[in-house]
Amino acid sequence: MPARTEALPHTAPSTRVSLRLRWHRFRNRLIANPSFQRWAARTPIARMIANRRATQLHHITAGFVYSQTLMAFLDLELPQRLADGPVTSEQLVTLTGVPEPGLITLLKAAKSLGLLEYYPDHLWGLGELGAALLANPGIAAMVSHHRHLYRDLAEPGALLSNRSDTALANYWAYGEVKSGTTDPGTYSDLMALSQGMIADYVLDTVDLRGHRQLLDIAGGTGSFAARAIARYPGLQARVFDLPAVAERARRENQLPEATLGFVGGDMFNDDLPASADLISLVRVLHDHDDGPVQALLTRAYEALPPGGRLIVAEPLAETPGSAAIGHGYFGMYLWAMGSGRPRTAAELTEMMSLAGFDNVREQKSAMSVLVRVLSGEKSKRNL
Questions:
Q1: What is the pLDDT of residues 324-342, one digit of tens each?
Q2: What's the topology of domain 61-135?
Q3: pTM of the prediction?
């Protein structure tokens, strides 16, 4: 008996957790009981709660249909067609080539999602969410590439058992780009559009004054670096990415090389340029597994001079108010991609600290649903 008693603290839940488990067990049995459901439907306060929960569950059930409605909305270029104001349904039939019954079905569905608004005389105009799409072209690009993700999710059980050779992994073909067998253009363009969408939020969050040179790791064609230079004219920037990506970026670069340069290499294996006093990782770490991420953070620390600074910006798991986006969306997305996972601010803080960074803290982003920002310093006193 004493041996069993001593083992209990290692296996049994705490009193607080135990009470929570008991409550949840009772609650779930009650909710799953058909008799309780019928009672709740007849009782005013319980009916209100039950209706709210039923609506939430139906939104989850219908999520794929909503996403496909958005894809059709964008495929038919409705934001652009309605950018100058409302248009009649007859005009939209002519513009899109979609027969009226099908088009009206889509228009009503888009209206229910807040993408469109309906006016008298058969006029359709953009809703608030539809108008927001015009300001964020990266959203349309992301939605379009979701076709690859949808193919992987057609059989989710099979995907969760085997994440190799997925459609999404083949789209983000880092290995093939590294070896030179695949052109980086497709995903580089998507990265530029989607990164541009959040770069301003990052730069609104952090103050780069006092830094002379930025090294943006895996920065693609330089979307974030170019915006940083525009904000801070005295800042120089280098973007470090795969050789094929860097070569393409050099050809398209419109800034002097001394101001914005591109260096080709493998961030996990090649030496990082050591001249920067500021390093940024914008939507990079969540694409990779823990081992490579920890090694990259350590290499970034080693590349910085004393007093140097690291900025990590990406969507994080368990973000208040948008928790489903972290594990619900990015968790499944990254699983299908074949590497990476969403991490919490606490997890990234611990990894940055383990790499050697001091004063690791989150700097509050105005758009935390899209990006949260952590920064850390290479303290002079530790050297």
A1: 999 999 999 999 999 999 9
A2: Arc Repressor Mutant, subunit A (1.10.10)
A3: 0.83
